[in-house]
Design brief:
Largest sheet: none
Helix content: 40-55%
Shape: rod-shaped
Number of strands: 0
DNA sequence: TATTGGGCTAACT
DNA sequence: AGTTAGCCCAATA
């Protein structure tokens, strides 16, 4: 089994230890199995301290723990109360009150005093706390005061209660783990921008992490027009946008075509996938991107319920017009218009369009997205593996490839691919 | 619910 | 104007 990397251990511990519902026994096993990170997250540190405190709420060492907790960023509010309660209990319950009180509260080096006085932790200091520290200091050698303080602070269960209150507040405020925060960035608020900025490979990872349902939702939002982006839509604006598009097209005609590079990347990914033993190989794919070495005499059985009757079984016969394109770029300026009013080059169909969009009440049609080479090849393999018609199986087994596609999309694409040449 | 076939339309020649 | 890939819808199993 591959070893857990320090970074992986850090993420796991941050996630698991920070979950108060995970029992101490499980935490102990995890800590024994994983290396403790050299740069633990504040959440992990907090979780470790809270668990240590829960196991040993009232003692000299819990005083250490409380002081460490106070040094972490954004401590919960009851920490000062818990800290002074523990310190006071230790002194009040000591057989030698004077010695204990001196060690804890006397100027200048009393341990609790150092923690709450000027220069100590602001999280542990308050007027009330300072007053208590002063009372204990003043009680050294004063048996009456000692009796009073023992009565006030000598109750272990009350002290423990203060610590439990602190624990509850700290756990409630511990916040999400790094993993949860990362997941939130992928599927929660702001996910759309994250996905929009991601390249294809990163999106494939997001897809796996987010799950099918979330992926579909985010991709849906991604392609959704943002109505506020271009609230003004006039003929003049549309003309200007058309002009921009034209100049972009002109620019593309003189700069290097990015398609070959994108295709090379796609081919590499495909070749890696095919190393599992499928008969296609990288050379074949590179040499003839729209054909498939698995076709021919041993062509897959497109039988079953598939639309195979009278259709070519040799993949060399693929409809040559079923062309392959690069992935579309992330939605550009176009996506900011309503798809119904999206500006584009003049089309005969658009000429008679009424000023009142007839489809206003219908669901918006998804933006057309060309199929990339990887999708086509994966579809072919999927049909070989699962059979034509099992579109959902094919889709579910290639979620990192068919991003934003539905089973019906796969069916339609296959229909196009096996369509006879007209 | 998943799949299918017919039909529609944006995008392109 | 014609063609096609991609998408939608309603029927069906």
């Amino acid at each position: 089994m591959p070893r857990v990397t320090p970074a992986g251990a850090r993420l796991m511990l941050d996630h698991v230890l920070g979950d108060p519902s995970v029992p101490a026994a499980a935490v102990d096993k995890l800590l024994a199995a994983l290396p403790f990170p050299s740069d633990p997250t504040p959440r992990l540190l907090r979780a470790v301290l809270l668990r240590r405190l829960a196991a040993d709420p009232v003692s000299e060492s819990s005083l250490d723990t409380l002081q460490l907790l106070a040094s972490l960023p954004a401590p919960a509010s009851p920490i000062a109360a818990a800290h002074i309660a523990v310190a006071a209990f230790i002194a009040a319950s000591a057989s030698d009150f004077d010695a204990a009180a001196r060690a804890l509260f006397a100027r200048p080096d009393g341990r609790a005093r150092l923690a709450v006085d000027e220069g100590g932790s602001p999280a542990l200091a308050s007027d009330e706390v300072i007053a208590t520290v002063d009372q204990f200091e003043a009680a050294v050698g004063n048996s009456f005061s000692q009796t009073v303080l023992r009565g006030l602070w000598g109750d272990r269960s009350a002290t423990e209660e203060r610590v439990r209150e602190l624990l509850a507040a700290e756990w409630a405020a511990i916040g999400p783990s790094l993993l949860v925060a990362a997941a939130e960035r992928i599927v929660g608020d702001g996910a759309v921008e994250k996905w929009r900025a991601a390249d294809e490979a990163t999106r494939a990872k997001f897809c796996i992490l987010a799950g099918e349902e979330n992926t579909r939702e985010v991709l849906g939002k991604l392609e959704e027009p943002t109505s506020s982006a271009n609230p003004i839509s006039t003929p003049a604006v549309e003309k200007a946008i058309d002009a921009l598009k034209t100049s972009c097209a002109d620019l593309h005609s003189v700069v290097e075509d990015p398609l070959p590079a994108a295709k090379a990347v796609a081919d590499e990914v495909l070749a890696a996938r095919l190393e599992k033993g499928v008969s296609l190989n990288a050379e074949e794919v590179r040499g003839q991107p729209t054909t498939c070495g698995t076709a021919g005499p041993s062509a897959p059985n497109y039988k079953d319920k598939g639309p195979s009757t009278g259709k070519p079984h040799n993949l060399m016969d693929w409809n040559p017009t079923a062309r392959t394109f690069q992935w579309e770029e992330s939605p550009g300026p176009e996506s900011s218009e309503s798809s119904l009013r999206r500006p584009h080059l003049p089309s005969p169909r658009r000429a008679p369009v009424s000023p009142l969009p007839p489809l206003e009440n219908k669901n918006r049609r998804r933006r057309t997205r060309k199929w990339c080479l990887l999708e086509e090849e994966t579809l072919i393999q999927g049909v070989e593996q699962y059979g034509s018609g099992n579109w959902k199986d094919i889709l579910n087994n290639n979620p990192d490839v068919f991003i934003g596609r539905t089973p019906v999309d796969l069916k339609d694409k296959w229909r196009n691919m096996i369509k006879p040449i007209m």
